[in-house]
Amino acid sequence: MINPFIKTENLCFSYDLTEEGGPHREHKVLKNVNLEIGRGDFVAILGHNGSGKSTLAKLLNLILIPTSGKVYIDGRDITDPNMIEDDVFAVRRSIGMVFQNPDNQLVATIVEEDVAFGPENLGVPPPEIRRRVDEALSIVGMSAFARHSPHQLSGGQKQRIAIAGIIAMLPDCIVFDESTAMLDPSGRKEVMDTIISLNRERGITVLHITHNMDEAVRADRVIVMDDGVVFFDGTPREVFSHVPELQSVGLDVPQVTELLYELSLDGVTMPDGSPLPRGILSEEEGADILRKLIK
Amino acid sequence: MLKDITLGQYFPGDSPLHKLDPRVKLVLTIFYIVIIFIAKGAAGFLVITLFTLALIMLSKIPFSVIMRGLKPLIFIIAFTAVINVFWTTGEKPLVNFGFIKIYYEGILYAVLMVLRVVLLLLGTSVLLTYTTSPIALTDGIERLLGPLKKIKMPVHEFAMMMTIALRFIPTLIEETDKIMNAQKARGVDFTTGGLLQRAKALIPILIPLFVSAFRRADELAVAMECRCYRGGEGRTRMTILRLAPRDFVAVGTFALFCAVVVATNIYVPWLTI
């Protein structure tokens, strides 16, 4: 990839578990991760708990410091020890993060004050903050709630406020760290639609960490992490055609993908004798194939 | 059940008092307290009482709401009265029951002291707590104390702590409710038994609540760092408090009020203490 927006080189991270006076022990969370993510990409990161996907996200904006290896953001080495504090904050502005629990990331008691929190920290002049806050709230469709208090909102709405708070910092990339995991189906849909429109309409690079396969299918690219290494990396179709491998690392595949996979295991073939296509992701596609089989 | 708790005593509205700049209200409240203690005679107290009643009318807060605020303090008010009636000595007792002597000065003292306490509570609540939202109050305090940052007082940090506390009160109340229900479902009994037993029953609520509060604090800290928070330095604000004409009118009226009270102390010295 030419000029990737995010690039990691042999990225390693481990927690030091050495007890005082005891032998050296560490828990390796990431092992030599090499990734390149282009500007404007929509990447889903999958992996079961403890696979290192959240750690990877926190290394990208220097919430955690890599044990070894390098991270480049927009061509700049952010693991450079000569980085001053301002550089660190420039990286955090550029790579925003939205977390799982919407309650634990809202700071202020009024929605618009919360959205203003990021730009305020960046020292943006007040009239510009006002403009950004209004714009961010309209992008996530929450303008009507500007003067509300966060605890009056639903989970999906709170999460959209959290997204607005990041948008107001004008980021190049937003990392969603299981941001839909605690929401009900309608909240999930609200947030997912917002994420997709940010990527498609505003060209914001999206890293979407998730457990939900139907959400992963909507990405341009899927990265599967297992035990600190990149296990699969490809388009959703490529990745989801490896059903048994995915199941071996504790992941599900979309139901329709699994159904067609199981049918092919039973020896079912297409009417012309060719094997069933693999990596079917949408229900429409699956229905088409089934229709042909029944005929 | 727990959700009914309101934050502070704020009574939303859009009266002229609600619209005043929080900094102005804070300063005026301080002057109000001072003037109550400067007033010496019945005339001064009459002026203050009328002024306070005018404030209450201006705030458009129902009188019953304000009186409800006084209820928990009835004991203190009564105590003040009793102390003053029995412990003040004067020239000749009005009532003399051996060891109990009530003097004319005692009664005067008691009446004026009770008036002082009641006016203090009414005035400060209507000027400040009933008409200023907690967030505006925090904001006002931060900006008012702003100059103290120069001598390294953690004014911003204090205001941030207040804001976060206010933000999380409803969240933690909701959580307490949830934990209580979960523990009830496991057979914990909160409503019977002696004081000690009930206090003990609170432990299974407090421990999960603390654990979760610490977890929340940790997550919030990371989220704040991700949003480039690094303390008050170099931080701007979206809303800038600007003094409006009504703030100057308020200050002017208040200055006049103070002047009148001081004048009564000097020129109308009847029933003074």
Describe the structure.
The complex is a heterodimer of chains A (295) and B (273). Chain A is α/β, with parallel strands linked by helices and 295 residues long. Chain A folds into two domains: 231 residues, Rossmann fold (3-Layer(aba) Sandwich), CATH 3.40.50; 42 residues, no CATH class. In chain A, 38% of the residues lie in helices and 21% in strands. Chain A contains eleven helices and ten strands. In chain A, a hairpin with a 2-residue loop joins strand 4 and strand 5. In chain A, helix 4 crosses helix 5. The radius of gyration of chain A is 21 Å and the shape is globular. The termini of chain A are far apart. By secondary structure, chain B is mainly alpha-helical. Chain B has a domain of 162 residues. Helix content of chain B is 67%, strand content 3%. Chain B has ten helices and two strands, in the order H-H-H-H-H-E-E-H-H-H-H-H. Chain B has a two-stranded antiparallel ribbon. In chain B, a hairpin with a 2-residue loop joins strand 1 and strand 2. Chain B starts with 15 loop residues before the first helix and ends in a 6-residue tail after the last helix. The N terminus of chain B is likely disordered. The interface between A and B is medium-sized, with 42 and 28 residues.
Ordered list of secondary-structure elements with their pairings:
The complex is a heterodimer of chains A (295) and B (273).
Chain A: E1 6-16, E2 26-37, E3 42-46, H1 53-60, E4 68-73, E5 76-77, H2 85-94, E6 95-98, H3 111-121, H4 126-139, H5 155-167, E7 173-177, H6 185-202, E8 205-209, H7 213-217, E9 221-226, E10 229-234, H8 236-240, H9 243-248, H10 255-265, H11 283-294
Parallel strand pairs in A: 3-8, 3-9, 6-7, 7-8
Antiparallel strand pairs in A: 1-2, 1-4, 4-5, 9-10
Helix pairs in contact in A: 3-4, 3-5, 4-5, 5-6
Chain B: H1 16-19, H2 22-38, H3 42-59, H4 63-70, H5 74-87, E1 93-97, E2 100-103, H6 104-129, H7 134-144, H8 155-185, H9 195-226, H10 245-267
Antiparallel strand pairs in B: 1-2
Helix pairs in contact in B: 2-6, 2-7, 2-10, 3-6, 3-10, 4-6, 5-6, 7-8, 8-9
